[in-house]
Amino acid sequence: MSTPTRVYIARLAGVAVFDPNGDLVGRVRDAVARLRPTQRPPEVVGLVAEMPMRRRIFLSINRITTIDADAVVLGSGTLNLRRFEKRPNELLVLQELLDRRVQIAPGGQAGSVVDVAMEASRGGEWSLSRVAVREQTGRLTRRGHLHQVEWDQVRGLSGIADARGTANLLAVLEDMRPADLANALQDLPDARRNEIAAALDNVRLADVLSELPEHDQVEILAALDRERAADVLEEMDPDDAADLLNELPPPEQDVLLDLMEPDEADPVRQLLKYTPGTAGSVMTSEPVILPPDATVAEALARIREAQLSPAVAAQVFVTRAPLTTPTGRYLGMVHFQRLLREPPADLLGGVVVNDIDPLHPTTPLPEITRRMATYDLVAMPVIDRNNRLVGAVTVDDVLDHSLPRDWRDRDAGPLPASADALLDGADG
């Protein structure tokens, strides 16, 4: 195994794992240590890596040939793809030790764990060796001194911590994509998960909630006070907020909608009126909409806006005024590739395409899936009986509603055939 022989584990979080051929296997999420009956530090037996589709697997430390803050490389051999499950005598280092309140011997100085190092012996055995502990100063304006001490000089590492902060764990999680952070939260005990979720800002929490299973969304929202819950719902896309509210009893829906700002609540209320499994129930009511006299340059500037998802930013819908849903008469759409090929000063009315029939709010999900796959589209317009644009169905929302309800859970099964077909169409 290559140098260094001491590695701080929090620095491994998110590091890429490669097989001997250089192919990406996944990313490191934690280290697994086996507790010993003696006072010796726990033995590190492997790493937990997250693969695509959020499956977490165990990587034996004996299979790893290179381990550092830049990459983890596996040696030859068969990779065990069985989903990782922690055993009773094992410890997940980051999940269970980070932020733990401890005392540094011999003086008993109180502090919290910010990182744990693992170190290899001459015989190749890895053990938890040193602990980075930050002192508690009692002052809000100054951070405490950081100590790096041997494992046996720290009191409070064994057993269950009574109280742990969230700052250090949030620091490890802050660079994760919302979907990866949502996945990490599912591994935490409910109380710890709710604590971390409550510490996120409203925008970050809204993004993470959209990636969680419905039951986790509801439990986290219920743990917030209602005013904070309403603020988070305002930051969610209207279709995601409607999906979440659909999981709540109608009286609770009404309370939260009343606490939201009217201009944020109104599109959500409208989406809640549509029948589940139809275009109206899965569409976003806030696609990119411009008038026919807008220029190509203006359209390109709009789709560059950072808050737009790739599927929403892939095309511009062209309508008569008003430009908020329900709009004036729907005229057509322009894909971003067409925009890139046209002179910036040209008007959208001259490049608009309307050769594909729009959806209607009552169009069922199987029909939407078939049409999007047939025409290789990532979004389709939804119009009402008066030819007004009321929203757009995007491929991510179709996938979300085509998969089993529990697909975001760790034990979800393989994709259904309809989702595979849609993915094939979108890739085309």
Automatic annotation (TrEMBL):
Q: Which Pfam families match?
A: CBS, MgtE_N, SH3_actinomycetes
SMART domains per the UniProt record, alphabetical: CBS (SM00116), MgtE_N (SM00924)
**Comp. bias regions, Low complexity:** 413-428
The record's region (Disordered) falls at: 405-428
Which InterPro entries did the record assign? CBS_dom, CBS_dom_sf, Mg_transptr_MgtE_intracell_dom, MgtE_N_sf, MgtE_transporter, SH3_actinomycetes
Keyword DNA-binding present in the record's keywords: the answer is: no
Keywords, in A-Z order: CBS domain
> What sections of the sequence does the record tag as coiled-coil?
none
Locate the CBS domain: which residues? 283-351, 352-410
Q: Is Ribosomal protein given among the entry's keywords? A: no
SUPFAM superfamilies on file: CBS-domain pair, MgtE N-terminal domain-like
Per the record, the domain of life is Bacteria
One GO CC term on file: membrane
Single annotated GO MF: magnesium ion transmembrane transporter activity
Q: Which PROSITE patterns match?
A: CBS
**Any idea what this protein is called?**
Mg/Co/Ni transporter MgtE (Contains CBS domain)
Q: Which organism is it from?
A: Micromonospora nigra
